[in-house]
Design a protein that fits this description.
It holds the Pfam family FlgH. This is Flagellar L-ring protein. Keywords: Bacterial flagellum, Cell outer membrane, Cell projection, Cilium, Flagellum, Membrane, Signal. The basal body constitutes a major portion of the flagellar organelle and consists of four rings (L,P,S, and M) mounted on a central rod. The chain has helices spanning 6-36, 40-45, 141-146, 243-248, 252-260; strands spanning 105-132, 155-186, 192-202, 205-215, 225-227, 232-242. Among the domains are: 93-117 and 172-260, no CATH class; 124-168, no CATH class. By secondary structure, it is an alpha+beta fold. The longest helix has 31 residues, at 6-36. A six-stranded mixed beta sheet has the order 5-1-2-3-4-6. A hairpin with a 2-residue loop joins strand 3 (192-202) and strand 4. The model has no long low-confidence stretch (mean pLDDT 79). It contains five helices and six strands. 22% of the residues lie in helices and 37% in strands.
């Protein structure tokens, strides 16, 4: 006959509880890692390697590419004059080397110098007082007096509200550089759709400059350059990727908590 040892059974139960708790923590940690570090395998494979540059590709073959569609004026028919060197609709008498066809390259002079200083202050105060009384009310005021109330001041309402708001914006941005862009599309009115991307790798950091937009051929300079201020629907992006950018970014867990936590 085996003797019952309550202390041994209690220790066994505590051990099983600790094992279950450890297993649950391990599963939760594994789930968090699998959810947050989706790109961890690629980053592990690139340890000690320089960031790879993107391959030059046709923008029309990229996913999500859509031709630009803008409101266009009515087309003007072209008429040819015999024995004349001038062609109707031509923008120049002699042909130049400025970009004018799909695939041509031109240089965009990016110069962004923005500075904004805004200061707003709003003060508002409002106070209201309402009073109601009946000094003589067909003799009923005597009963009101016996009840301990003043008939001349039966009801008084007071309200007061105030607000004080201040806002200040001080911003200064500057970006000066040049980037070559390719004509990817010609609109029916002759305007050119440009797209350019530049990648520069220094050690383990890649700097990217992306420029896109719509320009008029008349705004292109004689040296085949154009100012970024003359680009319509301009999309200019300047950033980087690599070890320095990765260190500057919050961890995946911190970003997830910033999104989920309400405070």
């Amino acid at each position: 006959m085996t003797a019952f040892a309550p202390g041994s059974a209690m220790r066994t139960a505590q051990l099983r509880t600790a094992q279950l708790r450890t297993a649950r923590l391990a599963l939760a940690a594994a789930a968090a890692l699998s959810t947050a570090a989706c790109g961890a395998p690629d980053r592990l494979r690139n340890i000690g390697q320089q960031p790879a540059l993107s391959a030059i590709s046709n923008p029309q073959t990229q996913s999500g590419y859509r031709p630009v569609s803008m409101p266009m004026p009515e087309p003007v028919p072209v008429s040819h004059n015999p024995n004349s060197l001038w062609r109707n609709g031509s923008r120049a008498f002699f042909r130049d080397q400025r970009a004018q066809r799909v695939g041509d390259i031109m240089t965009i002079k990016v110069k962004i110098t923005d500075q904004a200083n805004l200061s707003n202050e709003t003060n508002r105060t409002r106070a209201n007082t309402e009073g109601f009384g009946a000094a003589n009310m067909f003799g009923l005021e005597n009963g009101i007096r016996r009840g301990g109330a003043d008939p001349a001041n039966l009801l008084t309402l007071n309200s007061q509200s105030g607000s004080d708001g201040k806002g200040t914006i001080n911003r200064s941005e500057q970006l000066v550089t040049n980037v070559a862009a390719v004509v990817t599309q010609i609109l029916p009115n002759g305007n050119l759709v440009l797209e350019g991307k530049q990648e520069i790798r220094v050690n383990f950091e890649v700097r990217e400059l992306i420029v896109a937009g719509i320009v008029r051929p008349e705004d292109i300079e004689s040296d085949n350059t154009i100012d970024s201020a003359k680009i319509a629907h301009a999309r200019i992006g300047y950033g980087g990727r690599g070890q320095i950018t990765d260190v500057q970014q919050p961890r995946y867990g911190q970003q997830a908590l910033d999104v989920l936590l309400p405070w």
